[in-house]
Amino acid sequence: MSRTRSIRRWVLIAVSVGTALWAVAQLSAGIVITNSPWPVTGFPMFKNTRSVAYHTDIFVTTKSGQTRQLQPHEFDLPRMNAAFKHLYTTPLKNHPPVATPGGKERFGRIIADWNRRHSGDPAVSAKLQLKVFSLDKDKKGVLATRSKRISVYTPVRWP
Fold first, then answer.
1. What is the pLDDT along the chain (159 residues), one digit of tens a residue?
2. In this structure, how many other beta carbons lie within 10 angstroms of the beta carbon of residue 62?
3. pTM for this model (two decimals)
4. Strands 123-134 and 148-158: what pairing?
5. Which of 3, 12, 17, 65 has its CA 20 to 30 A from that of 88?
6. How many of the other CB atoms lie within 10 Å of CB of 60?
7. How many Å apart are CA 139 and CA 1, to the nearest integer?
8. Checking phi first, is residue 65 left (phi over 0); if not, alpha (psi -120 to 50) or beta?
9. If phi over 0 gives left and psi between -120 and 50 gives alpha, with beta otherwise, what is residue 141?
């Protein structure tokens, strides 16, 4: 019996030391912010800074001929949240954003929801506009609060 207890004790010590070493390696990787995915995962999401920011707007032309920029409070956002997801692809360096498969239909549901709330002057056409801003750094390397617009895309239109 004492031999079995001794083996169990050494196994427990080995597992405990191994777990402690693994935890120290994870913590070290987090501090160093390594990009290697194995055997110790770092946190690369904090290593690279973004160079651009995106801002989306929805513009509609109503039956009376007015052009309006829609505001978030004009929608039933909890119900329409799924429709707002993935309307367009993320713009890449040489590829402008385009509507995703089903994006135009989801955008149509968003506009139909808006039309139900504004039946007196419904939208007859709409577009989603994506503005891309460059994020410049100041002399200290901190992202500037002001940025300049570098591109405007219209990846989704309705009808």
1. 588 888 899 999 999 999 999 888 877 766 765 555 556 555 555 555 667 777 788 899 999 999 999 887 777 666 666 666 678 777 666 677 888 888 888 888 889 988 998 899 999 999 988 888 777 666 666 655 556 767 788 888 888
2. 17
3. 0.59
4. antiparallel
5. 65
6. 21
7. 70
8. left
9. left
**Both tokens assigned to 68:** 């309006």
The encoded tokens of residue 104 equal: 């135009």
Give the C-alpha separation, 121 to 21, whole Å.
66
Quote the tokens at residue 64.
């009376």
The type of residue at 51 is S
Return the structure tokens found at 18.
């191994």
Q: What are phi and psi of 85, to 5 degrees?
A: -75, 135
